[in-house]
């Protein structure tokens, strides 16, 4: 099996408790003056609302999660070979945890994983010779 290529994705997702959601959206939009747009959340059943924020070359997704008590940050990673990547990660005890947020209607192959500190990453397969595609919204991805 070949060694998989890993690279950072363009999507970051901030999972925000419902009680802090409006103030967080206002912070990025009104205080910092970033371009903030509300988006569709039909693909992610655990997210009740989402806004996208242009964050330099990245997109920061502000996801309202009604049953969260504290915020969480999720990241996106691309690989050229999802099977080889999953195998390599399994060798060090990192296994898919796709139950964290079921993703519906995706055309790409993905897995959710957690790093050793528990930070969630969307591991998405994309050819290494191409720039990473804009990931389906999850990383809410990445």
UniProtKB/TrEMBL annotation:
Signal peptide per UniProt: none
Residue limits of the VOC domain? Answer: 9-126
Q: Which domain of life is it from?
A: Bacteria
Q: Give coiled-coil spans as residue ranges.
A: none
InterPro entries with a match to the protein in the record: Glyas_Bleomycin-R_OHBP_Dase, Glyoxalase_6, VOC_core
Protein's recorded name: VOC domain-containing protein
Organism, scientific name: Nonomuraea diastatica
């Amino acid at each position: 099996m070949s060694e998989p290529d890993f690279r950072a994705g363009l999507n970051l997702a901030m999972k925000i408790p419902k009680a802090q959601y409006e103030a967080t959206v206002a912070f990025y939009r009104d205080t910092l003056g970033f371009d903030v747009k509300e988006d569709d959340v039909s693909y992610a059943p655990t997210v009740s609302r989402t806004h996208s924020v242009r964050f330099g070359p990245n997109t920061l997704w502000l996801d309202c999660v009604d049953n969260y008590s504290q915020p969480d940050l999720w990241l996106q990673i691309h690989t050229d070979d999802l099977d080889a990547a999953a195998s390599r990660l399994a060798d060090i005890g990192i296994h898919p945890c796709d139950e964290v947020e079921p993703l519906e209607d995706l055309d790409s192959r993905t897995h959710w994983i957690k790093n050793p500190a528990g930070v969630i990453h969307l591991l998405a397969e994309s050819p290494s010779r191409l720039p990473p595609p804009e990931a389906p919204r999850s990383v809410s991805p990445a």
